[in-house]
Amino acid sequence: MAKKMDGPTPWPVVGSLLGMINFKEKTLIEWAETYGTVFQLKMGSYNAVALQGYDAIHEAFVAKAKAFSGRIDSEILQKFRNGKGLFFAPYGEFWSNWRSFAKDSFSAVHKTINEGIIAEAFELMKYFTANADVPVDALPHFENATMNVVLQTCFSLRLDENSPKQREIYNLTYDGAISSPKFSLLLFLPWMKWMPGFCGFLRETEDERKKCVKVILDLADQRLNEQKSSQDLVTCFYQSYQSPSEFDRESFALLVQDYLFAGTATTANQLLWILLLLLKNAKCLKKLQEELDQTFTDVGSLIRDSAEGKDQGLNYAKAVMEEGTRLRPIAPTSNMHTTTEDTSVAGFEIKKGTVIIPNLWSVHHDKIKWAPDPETFRPERHLDDYGNFQKSDHVMPFSVGWRSCVGQRIAESENLVYLVALVKSFDISLAEESNDIDITGDSTTLLQPNPFKVVFKERFPNQV
Ligand code: HEM
After folding, report:
1. How many angstroms is it from 259 CA to the middle of ligand 1?
2. Half-sphere exposure (CA, 13 Å, Cβ side) for 180?
3. From residue 432, how far is each of 54, 286, 377 by CA, in Å?
4. Where would I find the H helices in 109-188?
5. CB within 6 Å of ligand 1 — which residues?
6. Signal sequence: where (predicted)?
7. Which residue minimizes the CA distance to atom 37 of ligand 1?
8. Among 114, 138, 127, which residue's Cα sits nearest to residue 306?
9. Spatial separation of the C-alpha atoms in residues 126 and 20, rounded to whole Å
10. So what's the pLDDT on residue 63?
11. What ipTM was estimated for this complex?
């Protein structure tokens, strides 16, 4: 007989939404202490189930992937992506075809991606060299680098930071509908579209989508008219779809829009967390710099080799990355899924159409797995007795299963390359004004560090 699922008593209308505004990952852990690792809650109008811990998440997303690979079906998402892109696309043939395109095209253009990452590593070094010894906020420069890698991957294009086009793309990706509280309200309380101001918001979201599609298709057309020999997503698209329909072209544009949305601020903030955790743990930073000095004499070969995966010897660097993403994953509750059929997890029955919230944070902070110090930044826990890096299946910042992050390899490669390039080239410290920064951060959208400044001091002047 199926077990009865417990959960927090829902408030009228909003259910448990109020507890999920900031640090939802921690609220979910508190609730799990009372209701168990699989519990039910109400997300506005939707029935939801939260999954805590490795076993529940693995059973759902890996062992029962088909049943757990849906996405919320909501009018606001329809206006935002028109059922296209990947991130919010419903489970089905369309999603599956474009997911295959995404994976195949990333493999086909890996050389272009690597070149983009290498170029951005040098640009970052150039910027921090020109601004050495003064406090800087690294985030916008990391975001510029990660956005350029997406543009390079898609269009063989690099834009200067703060150029009008760069700003336009950034604003269309982050400052539009998705940044409005109305977006989240309409997502979970769809009936609010009847309230004043909300119906217009649906229309604005749709107009914004059309504008984005136009900007991206203009870039694609511009790329087609250029005589470049590089392979990128535009060339892959026109190889697969020789005379694409408007439907295909919009699908392609919204895939690119998803890459910009899911691949820019995410990757940049993850790098920022890793840097902050190192700055707060001076011994680890020193140990990393020693490894880099022993393994590579010049920064150029370090950048090129690590971008091309010739990263043997970078065991401590990889352990630092793993520990940083374990302790502060930027998407601690991932993206919500829905069930595509009646199913079960851990013996609890779950109806088709239920929203699933995987708490990746609970795996990363598991008191038993990471005993005795789950809250401590200790990269050594990812090294074996011989000092070799050991990847852990209990570190899952990109989630697991069929809907796991399609950009994982790009993000991991970027952040390893940028991190080693910066730590090798500079002595990095927190600016005096940021010495008191704590590592709690803010979790209303992504889990981000609070703003802080750093000082880059050149170690080998005149090398960049
Ligand atoms: C550190 C950086 C990143 C992190 C931590 C991250 C994390 C995630 C997570 C947790 C998901 C949701 C998985 C799920 O629903 O189960 C996701 C999905 C996705 N990510 Fe990433 N991501 C990162 C970078 C990137 C990059 C660089 C790209 C592309 C260039 C990208 C593209 C996507 C796409 C398209 C999806 C939707 C996949 C689908 O629904 O089939 N991400 N990512």
Report:
1. 8
2. 18
3. 40, 19, 22
4. 110-130, 139-155, 164-174, 181-188
5. 86-87, 99, 150, 258-259, 262-263, 266-267, 270, 330-331, 334-335, 337, 397-399, 403-407, 410-411
6. none
7. 87
8. 114
9. 41
10. 98
11. 0.99
